[in-house]
């Protein structure tokens, strides 16, 4: 039997844990508990609820308004791991610097990042957005169209990324990707990157931006990037979307080609 | 180019493109052979070939000459005076072989430049824009035509056609479709050169191979300036071979050159050059000096000199080895260095501190072991001879159990390890060793020695610190001193880099905030709140410990056997746990305060210090209570003892009155509780449990965590390494404090348990290895790598405080509590320090004790103390004034610096003005005499002596142009406009202020040739150059 005094001596440890990892507890609460609670109560999926909210609160045809509403919903009502406004600014900056003509997005989820990218694209550019989940893809489609982007600008491909990438050249007639944005399953980052390398779609100067490389994190991806020597890379450090205290980062890779 | 000149049939023109590598080789050979022929011819005919060589081109020829040794040697036969040079060239050929292909392809003219174009295209290296290549080709063609026009030789025409054809083919072969490589642009530069040259030459040009040769060389010079350097070395090389052949004049020059080089090496550090240039020129100069120093002496002297140099080198090497050996002899030095390179100096400072602590403990251990434990074990009464040296009957059964021994009970308690075992016998053994006196003096000596060492170290550290405020040049300090040069690990370097940048950001923010200071109330409130929370925490932990100790006394009264292990070890467990986790809590709380990290660290250290101190003192207070309890018990035992003795006597007396009074086995005798042993035991247990907790946390918190993070990372849903658990960082402050408090406990308990220093030595030894291993194997470098030098004395100060605070209770117990009556070396005395008086009385002559009593009377002691206080005060005030004087000096230096800066600025401005004025002059001159400026631009070798203002201009102008542009263009522009290149001139002016533009030119006239890095040549040099110049014009 452990004496109560020893148990009391462990109190500081408990307190430390609670205080130090409070953001993770908050994240757990918002991303899991609240979601489960609403799922049971409304019978809708989280994405559908988000769409309903946006439909009722945002101005159709105005991407900015849609993004703002999205941010509001994600920070105040529920939690969806979009790219978020802060990291989104980095994305916007990179896009405006790069001025890509062909953009591939892996993991559209509810279309937040798709709208964000499409908004920043130059005239005549085309965005291919890949989403694996059918239900998410319908929502994403609706949101993209709601934001006013037509089929010429944004093409939504509903398929797993590892199936899409080999077909990009043959089926979609792509020659070169100027910009790739990765925000799907973190486990797929590395295989997809390798598939992209193998497909020959990356040219010198192509940029790849991978979100959430620190949290939840894609260690294999980072290791591969560090090891292969094909890229000039850096990590933009930021905090996790909608939750300040958790550190996260986006990896920016610039393809240098085989040396 | 020379094929063009010589109009020889080109075998490569008809070669198929498939055999390109063969082609290239043959081309190279061909060019080389031609080259040599040209050279030989030129030397055969022209009267003054050495001048051309002086024009820093000889090396190029030689390097191009490559394998054709025979040719060279035949040439040598022709030219007596040239002999030495050629030999040198021969010797250097091996070295040049690597560079040779480049050189041959790039230098000897068009054919090869095309060749390079092909090869370059194949290699696909840096390619320029299509236009550049096109332009380059055009330029060449143009230049060819010009040449044709000027010379009007039919054969050459043919040759040029050949060239044209080949060039076209080459262009077609380029896979990039006309991405002209750099080489070609070089070629173009040459061609531009040549255009100029031909223009110039058109005025007055003697036909003949010598002239061709000369022109060629000039072109080469212009395209590859660095060759001049090599040429110069080469020239030296010749001289090294045969110094006898040198005229004394030349020798003199050589000597001067060597001296100049030496001077350069010494002054290199202060030169305003780029690092790259410095490095290259340093290497070159060193090579040069090394080479020619030996050549300066003659005959015997030279040999002796060489021998001396050799011995000097050997001696240096030996000294270096010896240094290495010495470092290897310092314990753990290499380990610590390795850690330092991985984790920065702050972590290493912990290990150095640990080593220092180990040294001190070793000495303490030596004292107690050699003067107390060993004599008692060897010469004292053996175990079982007295009650205090025997395990009591009631404990005998379990005295050898591991659990009891682990708690330092049983046989361990009745051994030399503890106070109670020692006998109060005044002298022991045949040595008449004064055991009690020795025990007392060792106790005092350990403390005195510790004080001495700590204070001395502190004083030494204080010296290093120096006075003055360092807030003056905050950002400059950050820029120039924040790098930790001992870091050798890339990850740590990254972290250091990041920490420097963040510190910059923070410093800037601080600056801003110090001007803004908004919301100060919130910060204040938060800080107060944080301190309140910390105080609550401290109070709570103190109370918990007090509660636990009281409870353990209750348990002890009940008898330990009836309680579980947890309850028996409650005190130690609670103390260790609190000591481990409260700092973490403090750390979390301190995030509220928003302090600068360094200040935060100090607060953190202070809080942990308070916690540890509080815990320790609670523990001691509880111990005092226990001591009092034991003393009451002792009184009872004393009374019982007399009763028991009386009873024993009564029992034994009737039977035989002459028998010895006691025949009872010592184990059966009743005895007192011996509070000293109890205190010692408590401390030993505390140390043991503390050590165990440290090691276990190390193994679980660091090692296990690292293993989990490392191997679970592959199959986990988030990144364990970068994310939540990650690898632990080495907690310097916590570890240092742990060490300090551990030492404090040693100092406190060493008097009652002589084994404590030994235990501590063991602990430190093990933890040295264990922590070294743990740090290297499972810790990540700190995210905030900070330097340790500043906090070092802080640790020392803490150590001093702890020493003082830990000796206080020990002294209190020694002075105020009478020792137990039946155990320990002082049993039977009223106070422990009575042993001194006893020794004085019995061991010293009576006059000594008399004198001592005089000395120790208050009338003498008080004045003495007063005197000491006065002396301390005096020293203190003098040190203060010194400090102030230091500060004043510092300020003076600063102001002086500022003034110097102003002066320099003024001087620079003046120089710039002069330059500005002077630049208007040379513009006219350059326009009137363009060939001159060309000569200055072209024929200048790059010499590291640095006065080559023109070279500077050349370089900058060519660099200043866009990368797409090529050298030749820049050069041409420079030559065409003469001194009009404003930025370039300003550049050179900035480097060599006070030299007006004509001056560098004259220098460049002086410097070419012979000695590399010889900014100011002696007079004899002039005539050569000027003659060559005259030849040219």
Report on the architecture of this protein.
The complex is a heterodimer of chains A (259) and B (1033). Chain A is of the alpha/beta class and 259 residues long. Helix content of chain A is 54%, strand content 19%. Chain A has twelve helices and seven strands. Chain A has a seven-stranded mixed β-sheet, with helices on both faces. In chain A, α7 (112-120) links the parallel β1 and β2 (126-131). Chain A is globular. By secondary structure, chain B is mainly α. Chain B has 40 helices and four strands. A two-stranded antiparallel sheet of chain B has the order 1-2. Chain B has a two-stranded parallel ribbon with strand order 3-4. In chain B, a hairpin with a 4-residue loop joins β1 (427-428) and β2 (433-434). In chain B, α10 (182-203) packs across α11 (209-223). The longest helix of chain B is centred in the C-terminal third of the chain and has 71 residues, at 858-928. Chains A and B meet through α1, α2, α11 and α12 of A and α24 and α26 of B.
Mean pLDDT of chain A: 87
**Order of strands in the sheet with the most strands of chain B?**
1-2
Using only C-alpha atoms, the radius of gyration of chain A works out to 20 Å
Which chains share the greatest interface? Answer: A-B, 26 and 32 residues
**N- to C-terminal distance of chain A:** 66 Å
Category by helix and strand content of chain B = mainly alpha
Helix and strand element order of chain A: HHHHHHEHEHEHEHEHHEE
Total of helices of chain A: 12
Layout of helices and strands:
The complex is a heterodimer of chains A (259) and B (1033).
Chain A: H1 4-9, H2 11-20, H3 22-42, H4 46-57, H5 63-77, H6 84-98, E1 102-106, H7 112-120, E2 126-131, H8 134-147, E3 154-158, H9 161-172, E4 177-182, H10 189-199, E5 202-210, H11 213-217, H12 219-228, E6 231-239, E7 247-255
Parallel strand pairs in A: 1-2, 1-4, 2-3, 4-5
Antiparallel strand pairs in A: 5-7, 6-7
Chain B: H1 2-6, H2 20-45, H3 49-65, H4 69-78, H5 83-96, H6 100-106, H7 110-123, H8 130-151, H9 154-173, H10 182-203, H11 209-223, H12 226-241, H13 248-267, H14 275-296, H15 299-329, H16 333-343, H17 345-379, H18 393-396, H19 402-406, H20 410-413, E1 427-428, E2 433-434, H21 435-465, H22 474-481, H23 490-516, H24 520-558, H25 565-568, H26 570-590, H27 597-652, H28 675-712, E3 728-729, H29 732-749, H30 756-778, E4 779-780, H31 789-816, H32 834-843, H33 846-855, H34 858-928, H35 930-938, H36 949-960, H37 967-977, H38 982-991, H39 998-1006, H40 1020-1032
Parallel strand pairs in B: 3-4
Antiparallel strand pairs in B: 1-2
């Amino acid at each position: 039997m452990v004496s109560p005094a020893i148990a009391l001596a462990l109190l500081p440890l408990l307190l430390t844990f609670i205080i130090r990892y409070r953001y993770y507890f908050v994240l757990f609460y918002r991303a899991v508990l609240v979601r489960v609670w609403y799922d049971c109560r409304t019978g809708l999926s989280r994405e559908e609820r988000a769409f309903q909210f946006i439909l009722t609160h945002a101005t159709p045809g105005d991407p900015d308004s849609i993004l703002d509403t999205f941010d509001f919903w994600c920070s105040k009502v529920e939690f969806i791991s979009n790219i978020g406004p802060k990291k989104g600014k980095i994305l916007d900056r990179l896009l405006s610097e790069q001025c890509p003509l062909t953009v591939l997005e892996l993991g559209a989820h509810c279309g937040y990042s798709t709208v964000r990218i499409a908004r920043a694209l130059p005239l005549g550019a085309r965005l291919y957005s890949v989403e694996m989940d059918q239900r998410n893809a319908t929502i994403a489609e609706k949101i993209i169209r709601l934001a006013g982007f037509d089929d010429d600008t944004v093409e939504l491909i509903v398929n797993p990324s590892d199936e899409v990438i080999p077909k990009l050249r043959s089926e979609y007639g792509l020659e070169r990707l100027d910009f790739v944005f990765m925000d799907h399953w973190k486990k797929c980052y590395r295989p997809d990157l390798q598939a992209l390398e193998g497909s020959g779609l990356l040219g010198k100067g192509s940029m790849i931006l991978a979100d959430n490389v620190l949290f939840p994190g894609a260690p294999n991806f980072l290791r591969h990037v560090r090891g292969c020597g094909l890229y000039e890379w850096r990590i933009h450090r930021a905090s996790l979307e909608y939750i300040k205290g958790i550190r996260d980062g986006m990896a920016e890779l610039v393809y240098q080609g085989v040396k | 180019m020379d094929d063009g000149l010589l109009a020889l049939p080109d075998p490569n023109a008809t070669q198929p493109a498939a055999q390109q590598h063969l082609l290239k080789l043959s081309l190279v050979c061909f060019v080389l052979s031609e080259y040599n022929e040209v050279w030989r011819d030129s030397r055969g005919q022209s009267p003054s070939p050495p001048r051309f060589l002086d024009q820093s081109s000889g090396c190029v020829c030689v390097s191009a000459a490559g394998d054709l040794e025979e040719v060279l040697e035949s040439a040598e036969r022709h030219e007596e005076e040239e002999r030495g040079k050629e030999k040198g060239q021969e010797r250097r050929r091996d070295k040049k072989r690597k560079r040779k292909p480049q050189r041959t392809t790039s230098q000897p003219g068009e054919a090869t430049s095309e060749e390079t174009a092909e090869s370059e295209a194949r290699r696909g290296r840096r390619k320029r824009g299509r236009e550049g290549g096109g332009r380059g080709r055009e330029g060449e063609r143009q230049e060819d035509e010009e040449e044709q026009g000027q010379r009007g030789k039919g054969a050459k025409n043919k040759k040029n056609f050949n060239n044209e054809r080949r060039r076209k083919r080459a262009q077609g072969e380029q896979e990039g479709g006309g991405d002209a490589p750099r080489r070609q642009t070089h070629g173009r530069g040459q061609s531009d050169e040549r255009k100029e040259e031909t223009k110039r030459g058109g005025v007055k040009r003697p036909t003949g191979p010598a002239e061709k040769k000369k022109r060629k060389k000039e072109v080469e010079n212009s395209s590859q300036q660095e060759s001049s350097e090599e040429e110069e070395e080469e020239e030296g090389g010749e001289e090294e071979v045969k110094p006898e052949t040198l005229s004394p004049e030349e020798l003199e020059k050589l000597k001067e050159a060597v001296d100049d080089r030496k001077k350069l090496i010494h002054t290199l550090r202060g030169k305003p050059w780029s690092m790259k240039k410095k490095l290259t020129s340093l290497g070159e100069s060193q090579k040069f000096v090394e080479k020619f120093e030996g050549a300066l002496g003659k005959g015997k002297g030279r040999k002796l000199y060489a021998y001396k140099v050799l011995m000097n080198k050997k001696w240096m090497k030996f000294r270096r080895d010896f240094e290495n050996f010495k470092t290897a002899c310092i314990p753990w030095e290499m380990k610590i260095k390795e850690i330092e390179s991985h984790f920065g100096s702050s972590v290493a400072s912990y290990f150095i501190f640990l080593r220092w602590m180990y040294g001190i403990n070793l000495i303490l251990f030596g004292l107690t072991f050699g003067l107390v434990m060993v004599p008692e074990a060897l010469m004292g009464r053996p175990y079982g001879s007295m009650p205090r040296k025997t395990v009591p009957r009631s404990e005998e059964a379990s005295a050898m159990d591991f659990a009891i021994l682990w708690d330092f009970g049983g046989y361990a308690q009745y051994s030399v390890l503890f106070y109670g075992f020692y006998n109060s016998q005044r002298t022991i053994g045949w040595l008449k060793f004064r055991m009690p006196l020795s025990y007392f003096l060792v106790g005092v000596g350990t403390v005195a020695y510790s004080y001495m060492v700590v204070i001395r170290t502190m004083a030494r550290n204080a010296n290093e610190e120096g006075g003055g405020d360092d807030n003056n040049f905050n950002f400059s300090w950050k820029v120039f001193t924040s790098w930790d040069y001992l870091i050798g690990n890339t990850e740590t370097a990254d972290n250091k880099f990041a920490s420097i940048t963040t510190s910059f950001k923070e410093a800037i923010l601080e600056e801003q905030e110090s001007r803004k200071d908004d919301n100060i109330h919130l910060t204040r409130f938060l800080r107060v709140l944080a301190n309140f929370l910390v105080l609550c925490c401290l109070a709570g932990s103190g109370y918990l410990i007090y509660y636990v100790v009281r409870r353990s006394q209750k348990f002890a009264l009940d008898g330990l056997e009836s309680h579980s292990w947890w309850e028996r070890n409650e005190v130690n467990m609670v103390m260790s746990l609190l000591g481990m986790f409260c700092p973490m809590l403090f750390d979390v709380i301190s995030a509220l305060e928003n302090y600068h990290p360094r200040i935060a660290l100090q607060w953190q250290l202070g809080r942990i210090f308070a916690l540890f101190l509080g815990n320790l003192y609670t523990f001691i207070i509880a111990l005092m209570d226990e001591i009092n309890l034991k003393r009451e018990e002792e009184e009872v035992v004393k009374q019982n003892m007399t009763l028991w003795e009386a009873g024993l006597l009564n029992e034994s007396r009737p039977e035989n009155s002459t028998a010895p009074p006691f025949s009872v086995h010592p184990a059966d005798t009743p005895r007192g509780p011996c509070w000293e042993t109890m205190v010692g035991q408590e401390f030993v247990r505390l140390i043991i449990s503390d050590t165990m907790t440290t090691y276990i946390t190390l193994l679980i918190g660091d090692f296990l965590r690292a293993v989990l993070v490392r191997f679970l990372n592959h199959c986990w849903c988030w990144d364990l390494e970068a994310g939540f658990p990650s690898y632990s960082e080495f907690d310097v402050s916590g570890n240092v404090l742990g060490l300090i408090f551990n030492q404090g406990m040693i100092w406190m308990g060493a008097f009652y348990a002589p084994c404590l220093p030994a235990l501590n030595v063991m602990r430190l030894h093990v933890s040295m290895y264990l922590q070294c291993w743990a740090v290297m194997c499972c810790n990540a470098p700190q995210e905030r790598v900070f330097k340790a030098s500043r906090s070092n004395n802080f640790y020392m100060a803490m150590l001093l405080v702890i020493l003082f605070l830990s000796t206080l209770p020990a002294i209190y117990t020694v002075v105020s509590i009478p020792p137990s009556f039946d155990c320990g070396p002082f049993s039977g005395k009223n106070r422990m320090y009575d042993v001194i008086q006893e020794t004085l009385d019995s061991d010293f002559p009576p006059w000594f004790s008399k004198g001592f009593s005089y000395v120790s009377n208050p009338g003498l002691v008080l004045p003495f103390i007063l005197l000491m206080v006065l002396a301390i005060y005096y020293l203190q005030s003098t040190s203060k004034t010194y400090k102030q004087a230091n500060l004043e000096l510092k300020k003076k230096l600063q102001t002086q610096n500022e003034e110097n800066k102003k002066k320099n600025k003024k001087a620079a401005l003046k120089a710039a003005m002069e330059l500005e004025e002077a630049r208007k002059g040379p513009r006219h001159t350059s326009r009137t005499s363009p060939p001159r400026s060309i000569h200055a631009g072209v024929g200048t070798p790059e010499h590291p002596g640095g006065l080559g203002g023109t070279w500077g201009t050349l370089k900058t102008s060519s660099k200043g142009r866009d990368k797409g542009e090529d050298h030749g263009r820049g050069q041409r522009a420079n030559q065409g406009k003469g001194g009009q290149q404003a930025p370039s001139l300003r550049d050179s002016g900035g480097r060599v202020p006070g030299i007006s533009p004509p001056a560098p030119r004259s220098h460049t006239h002086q410097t070419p040739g012979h000695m590399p890095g010889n900014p100011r040549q002696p007079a004899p040099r002039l005539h050569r150059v000027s003659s060559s110049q005259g030849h040219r014009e």
